[in-house]
Amino acid sequence: MMQKRGRDLLQRWEHNPIITYDDVPLQNNTVFNGTPVKFGDEYLLLLRVEGQQGYSFFCLARSEDGLHFNVDDQPCMLPTEDGPFALWEENGLEDPRITFIDGWYYIMYTAVSGYGHRIALARTNDFENFERIVMVSGPGNKDGVLFPEKIDGYYARLDRPIGNGVGSIWISYSPDLKNWGRSELIISPRARYWDSSRVGASVPPIRTEYGWLEIYHGFKMTSTGPIYRIGTVMLDSDNPAKVIGRCLNPVLSPREEYERIGDVRNVVFASGAIVEDDGEVKIYYGAADTSICVATAHIDELIESCFEKTELMSEDFCKTTCPYRRI
Amino acid sequence: MYRIAHKTGQDVIKRCKYNPLITIDDLPFECSDIWNAGVVRLHNQYLLLLTVETLEGSGCIYLARSADGYGFLVEPEPFMTASREEPFARYETFGIFDPRITKIGSKYFITYLAESEYGRRTGLACTDDFQTIDRMQFISEPDTKSACLFARTFEGCYAMLERPSAGDSIWISYSDDLIHWGSSKVVITPRGGYWDSNRVGAAGPPIEIEQGWLLVYYGEKDTSAGPLIRLGAAILDRDDPSCVLGRSNIPILAPRERYERIGDVGNIVFSCGAILEEAGQLKVYYGASDSCICLGIATVDEVVQICRENRE
Questions:
Q1: Contact across the interface for A163 and B118, Cβ inside 8 Å
Q2: What span, in angstroms and rounded, lies between the C-alpha atoms of A318 and A308?
Q3: What does the pLDDT look like over A64-94, one tens digit per residue?
Q4: What ipTM describes this predicted complex?
Q5: Mutation test of the interface with chain B: which of A108, A112, A113, A115, choosing the one with the most B Cβ atoms within 10 A?
Q6: CB spacing of B140 vs A170 below 8 angstroms
Q7: Which residues contact A298 (CB under 8 A, 6 or more apart)?
Q8: Which of B180, B191, B200 is the best substitution to test chain A (most A C-beta atoms within 10 A)?
Q9: Where does residue A226 fall: left (phi above 0), alpha (psi -120 to 50 degrees), or beta otherwise?
């Protein structure tokens, strides 16, 4: 089923892309960066659709197998025109990520206005009614993902502020999802590497036996623009501010035509994943800001990818703590 | 809204005749420069927390004391230096800068700028007596500057003004515990065509007056030779400080004197705090050209009047 290309760990589905603008029964420019969730018997994908006017909003797509989707004919979340959120959403809603906690599906998304990009939080329990809760960050921040569990009694999120001109992944904590603090840097770009110019959180962290698996995006700037790739990092399960492993190589790079050609070329950008019972992880990603694709790997392979590097760990650590070590 | 003609050089803030109050020659140690200072009155003394740039190029904070608010003695040892202990050290590797002091209850809280390769964040520390100091937490992600706390709570919530780099505007955030912050809103943005057209930030903790909160802020206009940084003022609503009641169309202090024009970073007047005297006199301590500390004095009534000329 899956097609092996290049040296990427993730295997693309052979019928990618799974959703293009032709599949959206609304006037639209492009569709990309969808976040998946299993809801009842269905796979739902909350899509970022960019309208022809140029601003983005969210639509739901539904599927029985997580591969073949039908997109609803009405948007499920549009920029609000009244209330306290209107000011911050004037230029659209972008890049949603769903995290399930205590009966609610929380949606962290980027609200765009003349005041900058901010992270916003909404929730639903039926995917019919969406309730905006709060703006969780100041301006200049995006790619917020919520952990599916509290850490020491506090909610936790990863995000991507810009510090000293560089986009990095940070963690913040909250007692109530409203006020956030105790922020710490998690990872920053690495010189010489594929993620040398910017990194940001992509998929809400996945709990594994070895810690929190974060599937992130990194880019390297070239003379014709950035190349966005997907990587993995493992965070300590008790203290997720602590990095215990980080991939050396990207797990997916733009190679296919649908990843190379589009409104923003050379972009693969994950925004959610489903871990199946057999350990298969379906990673949903936007390709070239123009379509939505899926690629898979086994959870063990993704865990392993975090530890292919020894830079962060002593040899002893690798021998005793890390069961997976790529040669 | 038309702009009111104003005489050149007739800033509302009048310069103290002893300016500059502190230059590097007044320091009992060697350093590269003095930048900006936060100020507070404690036991009939005026205390200044000075940002000092070391010869190596890092920032640290020194304490200066005065009986009259004019003549200051700077202590020979730093009051606060970049932390060498985690979790603070990694975010302070380039130094700590621009302290602003707010008294809440019986404690003095200091918001300062921590700088590192990871960007600029706001640190929060507190002291009872200016003898010892406790670092509490960083209260922003990067890149954020010019944070200061309000001296009281609003419906039980602490409030802070800050200037995130994105948008170069003054924002307000609220907190139940001074550690976790949220409900951020934009308060003051740069105005095209004005003296504060490129960047604005709080120039010291807001001061509660009859009409609301008096905020002295800095505004920058970019020129071909770099920014021109001036001071202006705004009045924020007493109960809802995210609401701007008035804002000065014109600066209340602009670089004009030689010590404000000439220095490591010329054409800057930049404040981190002011003292409101009983007689309604506002003493604004300001850094000039990132090279010395000066004093400017205005009456609150005049500053309020300037703000009222542009009701928002």
A1: yes
A2: 10
A3: 999 999 999 999 999 999 999 999 999 999 9
A4: 0.88
A5: A115
A6: no
A7: A279, A280, A281
A8: B180
A9: beta
